[in-house]
Predict the structure of Oxidase.
Amino acid sequence: MERKAINNIITPKIFEELCDTIGNENVFDKVEERTCYSFDDIKGKSMPDLVIRPHFTEQVSSVLSIANKHNIPICPRGAGAVLSGGAVPIKGGIALDLKNMNRIVELNARDLTVTVEPGVVTKDLQDEVAKSRLFYPPEPGCAGFSTIGGNVAECTGGMTGMKYGVTRDYVLALEIVLPDGSVINAGRKTLKSVAGYDLTRFFVGSEWTLGVFTKITLKLLPTPEKRGTVMSLFKDIDSALNTADSILIKNHLNPRSFEFADKTCIDAVRDSTEGKIPEEAEALLLIDVDGNEKNVANDISRIDAICRENSALRTLIAHTDEERDTLWDIRKPVATSIFKVTSMKFNEDISVPRSKVREVLEKVYELSKTHSLQVAAFGQIGEGHIHLNVFCSNAEEVEISVQDLVFQILKDVVPNDGTITSGLAPHETKIMQDLRRMFDPKGIMNPGKVFV
């Protein structure tokens, strides 16, 4: 295949070497192909020089070996569903699309494990293991199209994180292609593996900066017998937070999911709720519980009573799967529905200990008034994980007012034992940089990510 070099990174000779190694049909250099890989769910864009779609570990190994030899950046990609910019090839080079590596390699119901390739879609995996009455708990909001590889790279959590944890809690073993093309295995297909360092933890959440995982072994759980859902609406945020404290702290309940949304979020979805949300509602709680039938019925009854004790305007209880889906269909589209009330927004995720949620939210709303900017807040209140959306009218406002507001908010988050999506302490950064150089001395793996 003849071509001209796109730039000095991908020369005709390198292009031919890649095509000869993994096949012309897996290498793409047309602009219309590459454009699709220049962004993820954030607004920033950067074009890769090539797109490669491997099918097997051996092909990934060959690509990385060639890239390492010629100092070509590699940006692996799942579904591009993240908001961290992890899938954006900001240094150009090769976008490594893993969607064709989408096989469920082994489901072992007796051992409660499943081994998959990185391109398997999260919801597809959950549906498949459910046929064996098994349960893969991590459930990001984008589970319908996000991939397991991307989830591992980002260490995604989701709506079940409070009770069941995040992706790292389910990764037992990884097959990994290192930047030089060598293939290693980390971890074991056993629940207990305590010899030596836990290498899997280095790679989970690494944003593909240390290598490419080509097989992932995950822990599964038995499917809970019963699930129940309660949605409660409140006249103010304080009443909702009091209710959350009562459920979690005073009554020691442990919900499967515990979601919160403020008035701005409620207003964004109100038109599609068929009158379920009172006009005066300024806060929403959505609570899922699971377990055996008796315990679920008891938990639902207690949560209902607690909501009423805290002056809930309305409490809705789902008794069937269809009713539960109806309630969750109010919460799930919040992030996209916000665009009904603003044409532009700036996102930041914050996590604080649950006991600090009230204090941090109060500060967020106080600062938003000071800066004359509207803020929408929603998220997993049971984990202290809040998605902040700051409304803005133009790019200039983002550069000045919005970033100043976000900076002020973050100054309050970190002293409250909190963190942000992109937040690392200096000593953490130093250790991680040293680790990264050890695995990837040439710096080809997703450069510019995690830290510069």
The two ends are 36 Å apart (CA to CA).
